[in-house]
Inverse folding.
């Protein structure tokens, strides 16, 4: 998938024989979603050693085309008017550089139907919201060598049980507040935050809300303070009756006419001693955008997972699990095009592919200094350079983007196969 930039089985497999082979792979009972997801994090832990890691989790709904006669075993998503699978993923991002270091874990599933029992009346283990907690707990097992871990998510992860169970000495939590919680001593969270004293302003450049739009520049006003939230009445009594957290609010002060002002209310277990520490929390939260890019690459703007025609929900769930890993690798390749994160090529490419890149790179260099690969051999940036050249980048103008890398990887796939056939003429070459 990484090489061919698609989740379509026909394009992925190359010919009819290959299509049947890939189909049998996903139909095999020994190939389980759990095993595929277990492989997500195989190389991530080592890459995170000694770093402060933002363990960013999010959920995406993948809609597949169905009819009343052909649901393919898929359950309802969105507001119940579509059918598909849910992908819950967590990625590791370096808090200092913003580099995506790989996947940490998650889950992929399809619903059996609509649960008639109201959400709050179910035990925590039977709620879909338990995925936020379970994924965070499993991530800590992948990151024992990280210097610090900050579990981060958007408003869906504002769950009291997560605040009460996930934090440890070197593991913190940072989410955007969704619920206007009761505070110890009276009052509510959102009312209290308006009483905080403003401590500074900053202009930030944020990603566009929709594809094709320009980035946004907004001026934000900062407030922060400690708060003590009460345990909700529906939560188990085994959880502590209250928790002390820190609230950081940034509010847009110059919205355009008719535009709703941006407002982030961020809750965290990190201690905040001053305004620079509070702005650091905002900076970390901005990096949550990386996981949004992951889902975009996985779906319509990249691998086009939702176009798959696999005939059963079981196979589609497996396919989505593989596509999540492929999308993460694609993000890493695009991020590292300039070499600022100093990742090794082995994070993305196999050893035979690295050998092909070593033979290929000199043939793509030109006469000028700017037309030569400037990156250290066997680094990910060194590997990305010939891929970009194959995709049509001329080493001038703007850096190569995802479309250029997509074209380049398609070219590299054919070249690598030919190179392997030359090196091993008696052996059939199969590209995974």
């Amino acid at each position: 998938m990484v090489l061919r930039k698609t989740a379509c089985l026909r394009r992925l497999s190359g010919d009819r024989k290959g299509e049947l082979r890939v189909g049998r792979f996903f139909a095999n009972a020994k190939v389980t979603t759990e095993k595929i997801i277990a492989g997500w994090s195989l190389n991530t832990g080592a890459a995170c050693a000694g770093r402060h890691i933002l363990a960013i989790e999010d959920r995406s709904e993948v809609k597949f085309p169905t009819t009343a006669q052909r649901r393919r075993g898929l359950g309802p998503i969105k507001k119940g008017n579509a059918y598909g699978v849910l992908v819950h993923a967590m990625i590791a991002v370096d808090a200092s550089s913003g580099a995506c270091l790989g996947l940490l874990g998650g889950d992929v599933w399809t619903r059996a139907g609509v649960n008639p029992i109201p959400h709050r009346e179910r035990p925590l283990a039977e709620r879909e919201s338990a995925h936020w907690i379970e994924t965070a707990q499993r991530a800590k097992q992948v990151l024992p060598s990280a210097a610090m871990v900050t579990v981060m998510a958007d408003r869906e992860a504002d769950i009291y049980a997560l605040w009460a169970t996930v934090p440890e000495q070197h593991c913190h939590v940072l989410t955007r507040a969704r619920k206007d919680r009761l505070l110890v001593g009276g009052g509510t969270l959102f009312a209290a935050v308006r009483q905080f004293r403003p401590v500074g302003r900053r202009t930030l450049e944020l990603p566009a809300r929709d594809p094709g739009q320009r980035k946004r520049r907004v001026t934000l006003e900062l407030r922060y303070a400690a708060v003590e939230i009460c345990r909700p009445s529906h939560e188990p009594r085994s959880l502590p009756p209250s928790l002390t957290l820190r609230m950081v609010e940034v509010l847009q002060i110059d919205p355009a006419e008719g535009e709703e002002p941006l407002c982030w209310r961020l809750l965290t277990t990190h201690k905040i001693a001053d305004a620079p520490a509070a702005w650091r929390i905002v900076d970390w939260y901005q990096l949550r955008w990386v996981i949004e890019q992951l889902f975009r690459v996985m779906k319509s703007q990249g691998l086009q997972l939702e176009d798959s025609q696999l005939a059963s929900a079981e196979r589609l769930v497996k396919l989505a699990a593989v596509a999540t890993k492929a999308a993460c690798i694609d993000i890493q390749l695009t991020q590292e095009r300039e070499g600022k994160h100093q990742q090794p090529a082995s994070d993305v490419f196999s050893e035979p592919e690295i050998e092909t890149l070593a033979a290929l790179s000199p043939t793509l260099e030109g006469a000028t200094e700017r037309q030569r690969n400037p990156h250290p051999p066997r680094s990910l940036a060194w590997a990305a350079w010939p891929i970009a050249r194959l995709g049509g980048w001329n080493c001038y103008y703007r850096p190569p983007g995802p479309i250029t890398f997509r074209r380049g990887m398609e070219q590299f796939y054919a070249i690598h196969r030919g190179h392997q056939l030359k090196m091993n003429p008696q052996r059939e070459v199969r590209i995974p």
In short: The longest strand covers residues 216-230. The chain has three domains: 1-49+57-85+103-145+288-338, 155-286, 344-423.
